[in-house]
Amino acid sequence: MSTETAYTAATRFAAVLIFVAVGEWVAERAGTLNISVEAMILVGAFAGAMGYDWTKNALVGMILGMIAGFLVSLVQAQMSHRLTADQFVVGLTLNILFLGVTSFLYSEWKPSSRVVSKLEIPLLSEIPLIGKALFGQPWPFLFLYIIVPFAWWLVYRTRWGLEVRAAGENPQASDVSGIDVNKRRRQSIYFAGLCSGLGGAYLLLGQVGRFDDGIVAGRGFIAIVAVIFGGWTLRGTIFGCLLFGSVLSFRLTLPGLGYELNTELMSSLPFLVTIIAMTAFARRVKPPGSLARPFVRGLK
């Protein structure tokens, strides 16, 4: 297997993580630990399968995936930042709930789908080493070139982004200055739901091609770790996703390089690397000041 092929595989696996982690990054900058990200990816993948099965149009599947992820985010946002329920408990509950819901619906409807065709951009896809990796992927990959710059602009170049960051760092001061803290936190979760649902649809239509209830395989939690690994910066988050995407691709690239390793060991490798990354970097980076802390006006 060539180096170019290895880069392409790593980028393809990292793409799902980037979709999800960008949304998670925005949510965490606002002060929300969005554990329900696994549910958002799962329903996005299922909705993508249903959309493709109904219309044979992958774009419809991607749009339905975004909508499905958004619907999960509505529940997370209302429970966490209107009813002030524990964010972690709500997230785990939604993950378990939608695992059951999608499993049941899949057993009833059994939607069929496939991996969509690759789109190689002329000239750019011919760049040595990175051309195929960045410009020769399944066409939904191109959504990344919209989502990532848009998220950066939204957080760092708009008043809304300034208020989101303030809500995550010091909600009491933000409230005094006139910012509706819980509203901004809910909106950031909605954005995370859209991104995660899109990532789930891409996972199905750009990588796997067939839905099953184990399709997510912990990618949501890996995306959360990527945000922590990246120090809650967009650049660092994307680098973390590329690193973990490389690890996820090892099960495909190593046999091509002549290495034969135990299948179960290879399946557990991404999570081993995740644990190591958490151990090494969790205490070296500074999270948003009020991450995972509910805000109630008048209470510190």
Q: How do the helices and strands line up, and which of them pair or pack?
A:
Elements: H1 3-29, H2 37-55, H3 58-81, H4 87-109, H5 131-135, H6 144-156, H7 159-169, H8 171-176, H9 181-208, H10 219-229, H11 234-256, H12 263-281
Helix pairs in contact: 1-6, 1-9, 1-10, 1-11, 2-3, 2-4, 2-9, 3-4, 3-9, 6-7, 7-9, 10-11, 10-12, 11-12
Structure description:
There is one protein chain. The chain has 300 residues and is mostly helical. It has one domain (3-113, 123-281): ABC transporter involved in vitamin B12 uptake, BtuC (Orthogonal Bundle), CATH 1.10.3470.10. 70% of the residues lie in helices and 0% in strands. It is built from 12 helices and no strands. It has helices at 3-29, 37-55, 58-81, 87-109, 131-135, 144-156, 159-169, 171-176, 181-208, 219-229, 234-256, 263-281. It is globular, with a radius of gyration of 19 Å. The mean pLDDT is 91.
